[in-house]
Design brief:
Length: 391
């Protein structure tokens, strides 16, 4: 009886393995690119071809010591960052890097995948295009460049609607299914096709809906407006002027070669700090105006549909204990307490990738590291801010 039971269990196990293998084989046959990239993601490898964003002899940033920030505050920030599996913690104040801390085997040359922090850089790129007259204004219909929108209700969507995540465009809902539209957008080989097939299902400015479709359309719009590759534009307009190291964007495929502009600007923590200083210094890096002061002011102006969101950039205007991204998702950003500094501006990347900018304290904080679903946005900026002495 015992051996019969063992044989039955073995048969069931073999059958389950066969069925699972057959199903995985079916999924791979349907979408080999997505299935391969899911495996790469699990292994911590790139989920697409990388295109270089070149840097060029960046201006040196001075290093100093935390003269007017308490040792207790610095130590608490380091302890929290280490607890959260961070790779890097950088603090900049009064034109100096006053802390540059790396954890485990990570260092200043480590290239980090910082997810949606790219969105704010994309907003800067739109501002530069407007400064240069390539785009007329934020009120220009996006369909001027996205010609696929001209004959349907999407022709009502302006560039500003895209920047403020209030376009009314539909977007794929999160799904674990490998063949879902969500995974085709995130991991598929034709991100432009997936983006342009999303139709308007609300009126513009009806509701705030944070998603990847709006910024992806802006990336496509910029490429078309300039008739240049996005990586080359980013290098020419920003990276060669401020960055110390080459960065990279992730392409959807060798065939289509469209970067995923809603995420995936891979760069060092030092260079993310430089992006933060541009916001801090109202568009300037050292003595060069990278993007106009007026554009930075627009970026950090609360939108109609969300007081805590400007142009692809998060703000601390009103306290929300659980910051909602969009109605289709249960994911929230955690804020255990209000920000001490209401002028805070921050770049939000999935899992706690952050650049916090506090102009009133002349402060920039960068954290990169392991994804943390329980990341509390109030901890680092409040910890550092409360340690600043005003003497």
């Amino acid at each position: 009886m015992f051996f019969k039971l063992i044989k039955l269990i073995v048969k069931i196990f073999i059958s389950v393995v066969f069925l699972v293998s057959a199903y995985i084989g079916y999924l791979y046959f349907q979408s080999p690119t997505v299935m391969t990239r899911i495996t790469s993601m699990i292994m911590g490898e790139p989920t697409g071809e990388l295109e270089t964003v070149k840097a060029s002899n960046a201006v040196f940033i001075n290093s100093g010591s935390p003269k007017n920030i308490s040792d207790e505050s610095i130590e608490a920030a380091i302890e929290f960052s280490e607890k959260m599996g961070s790779h890097a913690l950088l603090i900049y104040q009064n034109d100096e890097i006053i802390l540059e801390k790396y954890f485990d085997d990570y260092n200043a040359e480590t290239i980090s995948d910082t997810q949606s922090m790219h969105k704010t850089v994309l907003a800067m790129m739109v501002g530069i295009a407007i400064d240069e007259g390539i785009i007329e204004s934020v009120n220009e219909p996006a369909s001027k460049h996205l010609i696929e929108w001209r004959d349907d209700s999407r022709n009502q969507i302006t560039i500003k609607h895209l920047l403020q995540q209030s376009s009314g465009l539909d977007y794929p809902e999160f799904s674990f299914h490998p063949l879902s539209e969500f995974n085709q957008l995130m991991l598929g080989e034709d991100v432009t096709k997936m983006t342009l097939r999303q139709l308007a299902y609300r009126q513009p400015n009806e509701i705030f809906e944070y998603n990847g479709v709006n910024p992806q359309n802006l990336g496509l719009l910029l490429q078309r407006a300039y008739d240049k590759r996005y990586a080359d534009l980013l290098s020419e307009k920003i990276w060669q002027k401020v960055a110390q190291d080459d960065a990279s964007v992730v392409l959807d495929s060798d065939k289509n070669q469209m970067p995923r502009t809603y995420c995936c600007l891979n760069a060092t923590a030092r260079d993310w700090l430089r992006i933060g200083t541009i916001i801090l210094n109202e568009g300037k890096f050292k003595d060069e105006q990278i993007v106009s002061k007026s554009w930075i002011n627009e970026m950090k102006t609360p939108s109609i549909t969300n007081p805590n969101y400007g142009y692809l950039t998060w703000l601390g205007t009103e306290h929300q204990e659980n910051r909602i991204y969009n109605p289709k998702s249960t994911a929230t950003g955690i804020h255990g307490e209000p920000f001490d500094d209401k002028d805070i501006i921050y770049l939000d990347g999935f899992g706690g990738q952050r650049v916090y900018v506090i102009p009133s304290k002349k402060l920039v904080i960068v954290r990169t590291g392991a994804g943390q679903m329980e990341w509390d946005d109030s901890v680092l900026p409040n910890t550092i801010s409360r340690g600043i002495r005003n003497d």
